[in-house]
Design a protein that fits this description.
alpha+beta, Cytochrome p450, five-stranded mixed sheet, metal-binding, Cyt_P450_E_grp-I, heme binding
Amino acid sequence: MEVLGGTTIFLLVCISCLLFATWRSRSRKGKEPPGPTALPLIGNLLQINPWNLPESIKELSEKYGPVFTLHLGPQKVVVLYGYDVVKEALVDQGDDFSGRGTLPLIKKLFQGTGIVTSNGETWRQLRRFALTTLRDFGMGKKGIEERIQEEAHFLLERLKNTHERPLNPSSFIIHAVSNIICSIVFGDRFDYQDKKFLDIIDWIEENNRLQASIQTQFYNFFPTLMDYLPGPHQTLIKNFEKVDKFTTDIVMEHQKTLDPSCPRDFIDSFLNKMEQEKGNDDSKFTIETLSRTTLDLFLAGTGTTSITLRFAILILHKYPEIVEKMQKEIDSVIGRDRSPRMSDRSQMPFTDAVIHEVQRYIDFLPINVPHSVIRDTKFRDYFIPKDTIIFPMLSSVLHDSKEFPNPEKFDPGHFLNADGTFKKSDHFLPFSTGKRVCAGEGLARMEIFIFLTSILQNFTLKPTVDHKDIDISPIITSLANMPRDYEISFVPR
């Protein structure tokens, strides 16, 4: 018993010394950001609203300042609230904050191997290759503009064939937008009647709805527990796996039909890069990273833009006076006989302001895609340990009342000068900023402008309910803000 007691005392002394050494090391490096006291296991769950995390974070920032610590269950994160700290971290100290932090649900779905969620040298090489290759296949160039115009024509024909019947335009928009990234990554578009692709669209739409479920929200707090519980989150994961299989099958088919001398698309170019890297044991270009990067590009290229356009139509059919003013500008600059093109935008300040205001108002990713610090980091007066997850709150930038008076109100005037010219704002960061800025920003801007102006050039938006009863407020989820379901009639002009 004496030996056992002595061993116990020795272990306690060792643990105490270790804890003291860790505390002393941390205290020498500086104090960590303040924050509410966290409880074991559940963290700050009792002090926040899991169904509206951005609002809870806003309230906490008023008490703890622009840089503070928050515990989501056992997971510690540091929140950056306000334009100044977001810019200072992501731009001025961009390298320190260039890591990708992953919440449990993102980690479960994406596994950290593609361009969106990878880190370190893998991320640097994949991003460099992706940006170069996507440019080679027309992204940001005139070639892809013509491709968007062509797809917009297909969408317009589909809308005409509804014969003014009220409908939810969600699947129409997702299909059209998705075909753009498909043509770049897969080498071809999908027919609107393609059964396999219609299934993919259905799974994506269902997952957009499932994000708002209680179970999905709680997955980021208690992932191990939620893995064993039934619920909508399990359906979301299964749907994601189906989409993953769809893109992986396309990669496998490309392997069989590859002509190295004539790459058809992004996948072929990646396969050629894999061949060049053969024999390099440290190569980041593997079939696994190709499959994951293909999935990342497909989902990112489909989701953000299609959701923005769905929001835009929802908002605009509530405000016919805004639509009428946009249509006058469209008729004046573009007319009715040709497709809109990006060069028109500079002559259309009101339309440009409306599109910017849609993106600002909807605040699609209020928490941003989480970052992390890649090393022990000194930020302002605080010490942030390596690998700490960072929430650079885009909502605090896009809804800053000093920059945008009445930020909760939809008002294109936020982006207009008194003389009606377009007003730029440094606070317009819907695609984030810094080293992790969205790689597809240029493509998304082009798609949103051409698709939306094409629709308004050809149709008037007719609501199925009174304008005052149209709810344009976003549905808040743990990952993104989503538009409410609605029906609308597209009336030919």
